[in-house]
Write a structure and sequence with these properties.
Elements: H1 2-12, E1 16-19, E2 22-23, E3 42-48, H2 55-74, E4 78-80, E5 83-85, E6 87-93, H3 98-110, E7 115-118, H4 122-138, E8 145-148, E9 165-167, H5 172-183, E10 191-197, H6 200-216, E11 221-228, H7 237-246, E12 250-253, H8 258-269, E13 275-278, H9 286-290, E14 298-302, H10 313-325, H11 336-352, H12 357-364, E15 368-370, E16 375-379, E17 384-386, E18 389-396, E19 411-419
Parallel strand pairs: 3-6, 3-7, 7-8, 8-9, 10-11, 10-12, 12-13, 13-14
Antiparallel strand pairs: 1-2, 1-15, 4-5, 14-18, 15-16, 16-17, 18-19
Helix pairs in contact: 1-10, 2-11, 3-4, 5-6, 11-12
Length: about 425
Amino acid sequence: MQHRIHHAVSLALAFTLTLGMGAMTPAVFAAPAAPAGSLPPIRLGMIEGMSGPFANAGEAVERNIRFAVEQVNARGGVRLPDGRHLLSLTVFDNKQGVEDALLQLKQLTDQKIPFVLEGNSSAVAGALVEAINKHNARTPDNRVLFLNYSAVDPVLTNEKCSFWHFRFDANADMRMRALVDVIKSDSKAKSVYLIGQDYSFGQQVARAARRQLQVARPDIRIVGDELHPIGKVKDFAPYIAKIRASGADTVITGNWGNDLTLLVKAAKEASLHLKFYTFYANSLGAPAAIGDAGVGSVRAVAEWHPNAVDGNAASDAFYRSFRQRYPQPKDDYLFLRMDVMIDMLAAAIEKAQSTDAVAVARALEGAQYKSKFHEASMRASDHQLIQPLYVAVMQKLADGGIRFDNEGSGYGFKTERYLAPAATLVPSTCKMQRH
């Protein structure tokens, strides 16, 4: 199986990485390198909610990270001066809670794991940044680097930016800019209802929507601005009733996981036909829950999706290799950014010739990624990855406009708007303390 995965992915990626000012080329070592697997692995520790209401989101992340790790290992691992080291992933369950995440971070650092991975909660990410800042100052011989794949609160690369933190997802302001770029040209959008989860991320999404709509479409009325408890609402019918009563024709939501699936399912059951502009409607059961009601009216924003690049064999091969690795329809959720993150980390370790947090951080700053269907760069000033964004609209597979559906639902997404990396840029207020 590993050989087949390696073959398919090598066809799909064939990427080039540039780190800092130098090209990613094999280092020349004086001593013969030991073969992969004969040396201690380079350990990655993922702190994520693997139980509770968002366990399905944590499981999806783990599949993606393991897939990316397997790809690096299949091509020989990471080359250091003493030889090739494989990557190894350990998962720590934080039950989607801040306090549990901090306890898991302590376990991770006690095991001297040099790389921390997290992303499914901006609240957790914010707490981890603060804890890692203190830990690294207190124990310079056991410093860790934080790789963030999904926590998109802009503060993490603005006022709370950290030398030890790198974000590989577009932040909420960048994602909202892409959605508003589509809404701006939708003449039928007159009244918008904002609904989201009541924590730092959901609050930021609402602020970004208000601010950006005021500039792009000052004629649009905000007819509702609702925040609900995260992961606790079992029936969204009362919220859908409020949306109906408001007269909204468009909904903007950053909801994810079951909070999104239950929201759109309630809208469908109430026969409320609206345009939904979402961050995450292309996953975790949402397409099946929405069904025909979402065709042409539900949109999602992402750095890539299976139908993103028409006629691109490398993109299609990358997606098919993931589906070969995880063939169950429920496991069909591929995040390109997590693959990019692991590839860029591996390249940075090789450039640094070390797993030392300072050396790897410096190698990641300004790093460039390029494959046959994707490109990205790590902005050195705030450690925010800059990459394309796609706004995609839901389609029915049977209608013939898309190649792939999502999760065997019969529904997938088709690119409606492509934003090149330069078009996604938003300014940063980061004043980083460098090391």
